[in-house]
Amino acid sequence: MAFTDSDVISAWNAGADAWDTFVESGADYYRIEVHGPALLAVCEPLRGQRVLDLGCGQGYFSRRLAGRGAEVSAIDISARLLALAERREARERLGIRYHCLAAAAVAQHWPVDSFDLVAACMSLQDMADVPSALGGAAAVLRPGGRMVFSVLHPATETSVREWERDAMGRKRTLKLDRYFETGSSVFHWNMPRLEYHWATPYWRHTLGEWAALVVGAGFVIRGLHEPRPTAEQVTADPRLENCSRMPFFLIVESCKPIV
């Protein structure tokens, strides 16, 4: 399946309203309780920092960055998602500047040394041209600036992924196979807690491929993080138990060398 940015735009415009409700209502509990806070922590310190949010969607993570004192610019290629982000910015002014732009084009939009940090919350996997997105991020960062992003964990987001369930229907064992089958695929947003269902293109990469993409863009990898809920979080919200046993998310922390 050879998807392009046009396919991504159409898919996310179609799902924008359901996605907005999903995230803003708290129904996306993994984002709210696990990988979102973990990514924000890795992005610190943020106060006074110039930050570019790649693939901002309806602005959820952009608002978290701005809430920590960052000066935020944010981009996405879905006009519908950006309209939702702009609507929230109009209601609660945080100074976020939103742009309808592909991540691969940031180097044509901003000059060198424009940002101290580029962040991407679960968005790079939805981009057709990751090398250009990372290359653009490197171009607009100052020397010593950081690139921090989260993606679905390659070890558990495999081509074959199926839950074995107990008699009560609870997730018991995650069966995985075909880790090395990478490239374009389709994510079906069909969870019962969504207002309606839709599908989006995305791209799988192995851990080694992600590392090669980051290093190939000129970054030095400083850390890999695998966020998971604490025992206290699982007790408070048992829905998080499944991602306390296996890594569902990967955070890559890297920096642009000072030459």
Strand % is: 25-35%
Please state how the strands of the largest beta sheet are arranged side by side: 3-2-1-4-5-11-10
Helix/strand order, N-terminal first: HHEHEHEHEHEEEEEHEHE
- What summary fits the major beta sheet? 7 strands, mixed
Look at the structure and give the CATH class.
Alpha Beta
Query: What global shape is seen?
Result: globular
- CATH-derived topology: Rossmann fold
Please estimate the helix content. 25-40%
Write up what this structure looks like.
The strands form three sheets. The chain has a seven-stranded mixed sheet, with helices on both faces. Strands 6-7 form a two-stranded antiparallel sheet. Strands 8-9 form a two-stranded antiparallel ribbon. The chain starts with a helix and ends with a strand. It has eight helices and eleven strands. It has a single domain (5-153, 206-255), classed as Rossmann fold (3-Layer(aba) Sandwich). The relative contact order is 0.17. With 259 residues, the protein is an alpha/beta fold.
